[in-house]
């Protein structure tokens, strides 16, 4: 396996990072997860723009110019002989003495991983997953903005632990006001009275790139879409619910907190959007 580390592709055995790296010591860094279909990357420009935004928000200058990322990602896919790929770009603050000041680190550490894409089990996509609304609240935007896709994932990991404890596939977090936000690595949508609803970005979520595509496809299909503030009760009364992210695309939800949602099967809006996602995919590949 070839891994890009800092300035070159190295074998997996040589792909090691210092124990003084501030990404390891403090979770100081940013990342992106991308996906390639038949070697073509989904929403590449948007992922690179979000990486840039995350880096900017933590005052980290990406050591690789914008135009160099696409060829590097392509090379990572090709060197590893992949067609369907999971790609991860990680940029940490870099190696430096102990201490929180980023100035202790001379240059950021860059890693690009290209791994074979592992699809989710078909039965989950067909039947839907179980969600738990977890006690852990989503990070307050004014403390650590969920719009920074940072290496510091403890908020999400603690929520995931709660979900696993509750026997659910994933945990849905509320914000400090008690409104729905997102799951540990995906955005959430639900359907109520034929309207497609999703928590707005100002509820404190990552503005998912799959979310953006789903909103676009729904609008093109004249499905009414609204981004707003919702209580757990509105989700419990929903007819349908699904999650979105780069690796799962659109994942139906069949149960929330142990209670079936709607018919307990993926509903018509979910299925329509999933078909549209598939049939329009080529529009979003680079
Ligand atoms: N996760 N919300 C959170 C907290 C996420 O971590 C992600 C992505 C999303 C969905 O974003 P997108 O549609 O751009 O993938 C929402 C990725 C898959 C990850 O962490 O690997």
Brief description of this entry?
The chain is an alpha+beta fold.
How many distinct beta strands? 15
Give the full name of the CATH homologous superfamily of the largest domain.
D-amino Acid Aminotransferase, subunit A, domain 2
Counting helices, strands and paired strands, the structural category is alpha+beta
β-strand percent reads 25-35%
Helix content: 25-40%
Number of helices: 8
Indicate the multimeric state: single chain
CATH architecture of the largest domain: Alpha-Beta Barrel
Please explain how this structure is put together.
The chain is α+β, with helices and mostly antiparallel strands. The chain folds into 2 domains: 2-116, D-amino Acid Aminotransferase, Chain A, domain 1; 122-284, D-amino Acid Aminotransferase, Chain A, domain 2, CATH 3.20.10.10. The protein contains 8 helices and 15 strands. The chain has helices at 22-26, 44-57, 69-79, 122-127, 154-165, 209-220, 232-236, 268-280, and strands at residues 2-5, 8-11, 29-37, 40-41, 85-92, 109-116, 129-133, 170-174, 180-183, 187-192, 195-199, 225-228, 240-245, 249-256, 259-260. The strands form 2 sheets. Strands 7, 8, 9, 10, 11, 12, 13, 14 and 15 form a 9-stranded mixed β-sheet that branches. Strand 14 and strand 15 (259-260) form a beta hairpin. The chain binds N-(5'-phosphopyridoxyl)-D-alanine (PDD). Residues 33, 156, 182, 185-187, 206, 208-211, 244-247 line the site of N-(5'-phosphopyridoxyl)-D-alanine.
Task: Identify the notable features of this structure and list them briefly.
six-stranded antiparallel beta sheet; D-amino Acid Aminotransferase, Chain A, domain 2; binds N-(5'-phosphopyridoxyl)-D-alanine; D-amino Acid Aminotransferase, Chain A, domain 1; 286 residues; 2 domains; alpha+beta
